[in-house]
Amino acid sequence: MSPLLIPMLALSIPIVAIIGGVFIKPWFALQERRMEIEASKVAEKAAQYAAQTERLEERVRVLERIVTDRGADLAQEIEALRDERPAARLPIN
After folding, report:
1. The pLDDT of residue 85
2. In angstroms, rounded to a whole number, what is the distance separating the alpha carbons of residues 93 and 80?
3. Structural contact between residues 49 and 57, judged by C-beta atoms closer than 8 angstroms
4. Disulfide engineering: 24 pairs with which of 2, 20, 55, 88, CB 3.0-4.6 Å?
5. What does each C-alpha distance from 79 to 33, 64, 71, 84 come to in angstroms?
6. Cα angle at 55 between 70 and 63, to 5 degrees?
7. What pLDDT score does 11 carry?
């Protein structure tokens, strides 16, 4: 081995550590921030999907209640609504 190799390696270790601290640490911080932003976007979308699912489930519950509670009367009510004539409308000035 060359006698200069050991001092060169000894000096290169702190240089690499300094460069790593200057460049790598901020890069990791940037990646962490990007992941936090992405996680908040995903959480927001999940909340929107949950709200939409809840609305759809409520609509299905209403439809199920209509079908099961008043199945026979429903057709008569629909026909009665069709037979009703619209009330006279007042002219708009």
Report:
1. 60
2. 32
3. no
4. 20
5. 61, 20, 13, 9
6. 15
7. 85
- Output the pTM of the full model: 0.48
Give the tokens for residue 42: 């995903």
Tokens coding 55: 């609305």
What residues contact residue 77 under an 8 Å CB cut-off, 6+ apart?
70
Mean pLDDT by 10 residues, the chain (93 residues): 80 84 85 96 96 94 78 71 62 58
Rounded CA gap, 68 and 62, in Å? 10
SS3 labels along the chain: CCCCHHHHHHHHHHHHHHHHHHHHHHHHHHHHHHHHHHHHHHHHHHHHHHHHHHHHHHHHHHHHHHHHHCHHHHHHHHHHHHHCCCCCCCCCC
| Three-state DSSP class for residue 43 | helix
Question: Residue 53's pLDDT is what?
Answer: 96
